[in-house]
């Protein structure tokens, strides 16, 4: 079983978890949300929610992985059996595996765009280009399903190669080289932004504390970002936790992951917006910021082609470090459950995700409108797949918190936490009550509506059902002393 593997170095789990957390969202979504929602006020709410919600669930998910020493699905099956609870808790593993599979399918397509822009930058094709030229070029990329499929294939194949080589030769060796290199590249881009951009305007944009600008929606976005940025509820953290040495502190590691992930987002925000403001451009949102606004900024600055190419290599590296964590939960399950070799398991997972990814490819062109997805759900196939992940991940995270908080005994939690009784009681209070309530609140307030109240109603049923079922599933009373 995969549980026989343990990271060779104690710090590898930190690199793996940070690699899973640091991705495309850190490089544009977090900085943009911060600037648009009160700057420092948004960061304050984000930090408080990270502490009260994100870190407790992160600790819980790592704990479940390390306690079971198996893939999320098989691990939850094992834990449910050994703790005398219902096998229905295995749902946690299935939700995580489903989320990882669906996210990988469209994440690979979006990340593949960075291959296109790395090539354009390094060849100097965008030097001196104006806004219209770059915007038209991006639209042309989206309108070319063949080209997008090529990039999608290259990206997912590179991710599969790393995971297929195994825990030590593939994932561990890759992360030990990749993550430090990404941090160095990020600092180089920041230094370039300081010299050639407007770092003062970027700092003002991101860190001005104005609580009046933070609406209820802003609070919800800050709370939601704190949950999703740590890769919770998608099986990756649980799968990586299964390889974590027993003598590594869960608490210190979880705090370190949260701090490094946030720091990367902050530095990326400073670097990106220094370039944007330095070029006198408007801040964008989503793909437009990274694939239209930033290339335009690089096109107008000295050595912009070279630094732009390096930046998109950073984007690719961050995306690959996330994608390999998405492959692992399903691949580990296939190895354990069906006694496959690791290359076989990875091949099945990746080929299926690649095929699913074709729905995302055509959602930007051939199937941009008029499909069954538009008729039934009012959105494209890509948007529907993304919607499913926005349901599965928080429900999975909520169940993780409930199982760790109510099913695991004090003695085994204390053994895993290796900390004082005071911290244990505080963590258990957060993971039993605060974290589930916060996740449910954010989930029900932010989930998009489809056909009136179809999706919110489904979400409410899932959340209420999770709370109710958690008590029914805990057949055997747990000792709390």
UniProtKB/TrEMBL annotation:
It comes from the Bacteria. Keywords: Membrane, Symport, Transmembrane, Transmembrane helix, Transport. InterPro entries: Na/ntran_symport, SNS_sf, YocR/YhdH-like. Coiled coil: none annotated. It is found in: Membrane. One of its GO terms (molecular function) is symporter activity. This is Transporter. It comes from Vreelandella sedimenti.
């Amino acid at each position: 079983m995969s549980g026989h593997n343990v990271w060779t170095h104690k710090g590898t789990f930190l690199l793996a978890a940070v690699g899973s957390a640091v991705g495309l969202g850190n490089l544009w979504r977090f900085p943009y949300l911060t600037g648009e929602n009160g700057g420092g006020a948004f960061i304050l709410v984000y930090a408080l929610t990270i502490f009260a919600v994100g870190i407790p669930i992160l600790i819980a998910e790592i704990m479940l992985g390390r306690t079971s020493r198996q893939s999320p699905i098989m691990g939850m099956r094992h834990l449910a059996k050994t703790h005398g609870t219902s096998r229905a808790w295995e749902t946690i593993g299935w939700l995580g595996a489903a989320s990882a599979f669906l996210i990988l399918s469209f994440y690979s397509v979006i990340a593949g765009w960075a291959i296109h822009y790395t090539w354009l930058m390094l060849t100097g094709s965008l030097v001196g280009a104006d806004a219209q030229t770059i915007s038209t070029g991006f639209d042309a990329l989206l309108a070319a399903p063949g080209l997008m499929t090529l990039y999608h294939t290259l990206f997912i194949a590179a991710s599969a190669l790393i995971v297929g080589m195994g825990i030590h030769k593939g994932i561990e060796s890759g992360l030990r080289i990749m993550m430090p290199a990404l941090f160095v590249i990020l600092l180089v881009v920041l230094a370039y932004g300081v010299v050639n951009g407007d770092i003062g305007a970027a700092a003002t944009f991101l860190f001005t504390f104005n609580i009046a600008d933070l609406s209820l929606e802003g609070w919800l976005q800050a709370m939601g970002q704190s949950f999703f940025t740590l890769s919770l509820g998608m099986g990756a953290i649980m799968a990586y936790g299964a390889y974590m040495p027993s003598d590594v502190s869960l608490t210190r590691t979880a705090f370190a992951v949260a701090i490094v992930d946030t720091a990367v987002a902050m530095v990326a925000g400073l670097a990106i917006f220094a370039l944007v403001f330095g070029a006198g451009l408007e801040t964008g949102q989503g793909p437009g910021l990274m694939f239209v606004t930033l290339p335009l900024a690089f096109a107008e600055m000295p050595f912009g082609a070279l630094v732009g190419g390096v930046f998109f290599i950073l984007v690719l590296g961050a995306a690959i470090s996330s994608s390999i964590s998405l492959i692992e939960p399903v691949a580990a399950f296939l190895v354990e459950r069906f006694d496959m070799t690791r290359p076989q398991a990875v091949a099945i997972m990746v080929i299926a995700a690649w095929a699913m990814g074709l729905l995302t490819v055509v959602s930007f062109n051939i199937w941009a409108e008029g499909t069954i997805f538009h008729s039934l759900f009012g959105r494209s196939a890509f948007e529907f797949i993304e919607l499913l992940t926005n349901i599965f991940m928080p429900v999975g995270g909520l169940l993780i918190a409930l199982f760790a908080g109510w099913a695991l005994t004090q003695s085994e939690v204390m053994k895993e936490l290796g900390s004082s009784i005071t911290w244990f009681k505080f963590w258990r209070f957060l993971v039993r009550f605060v974290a589930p309530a916060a996740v449910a609140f954010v989930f029900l307030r932010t989930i998009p509506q489809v056909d009136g109240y179809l999706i919110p109603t489904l979400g409410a049923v899932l959340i209420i059902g999770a709370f109710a079922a958690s008590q029914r599933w805990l057949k055997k009373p747990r000792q709390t002393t």
